[in-house]
Design goal:
Low-confidence stretches: 1-14
Shape: elongated
Structural class: mainly alpha
Helix content: over 70%
Number of helices: 5
Distance between the termini: 85 Å
Number of strands: 0
Order of helices and strands: HHHHH
Strand content: under 5%
Radius of gyration: 24 Å
Mean pLDDT: 83
Largest sheet: none
Length: 136
């Protein structure tokens, strides 16, 4: 009896984020990556662009008709000092989420490469050798 009540209490204390919350969070990440794009060293710019495109893709998947410019302007502070604080506040979350997905994709890539290598090894073992034996 206590466990169902506890589950209901915990569920009420931590509501699930809505799609709108996720959309706003992703718009914020696009704004953050856009704000830092020209401030990072050249070798890191490709990663910033990739991060921007990742979040734009998430946004577009939820609502292809979203006016992204309007959404970004709605979340950005209007003053430069506010922009710096905004970027500091959200960079960790946005970067962490992106890194989690980079690790996940790297894991998938590793699994695909391992399977391809295993398949190639099996195929090499099943084929008769095309080369004639060489003797001296």
């Amino acid at each position: 009896m206590l466990f169902p009540l506890l589950a209901l209490t915990l569920g009420a204390a931590a509501p699930m984020p809505t799609a709108q919350d996720a959309q706003t969070a992703d718009v914020i990440c696009v704004a953050v990556f856009g704000a830092i794009a020209n401030t990072v060293p050249e070798p890191q710019r490709a990663g910033v662009l990739a991060g921007t495109m990742y979040y734009v893709g998430r946004i577009d998947a939820r609502d292809p008709a979203l006016d992204l410019q309007k959404a970004i302007l709605a979340v950005l502070p209007s003053e430069e000092s506010g922009l710096n604080a905004f970027v500091k506040e959200h960079t960790g979350r946005c970067g962490s989420q992106l890194q989690d997905n980079v690790r996940r994709l790297a894991s998938v890539g590793g699994a695909v490469q391992a399977r391809a290598k295993a398949d190639a090894t099996k195929a090499d073992g099943a084929k008769p050798s095309d080369a004639a034996p060489q003797g001296r």
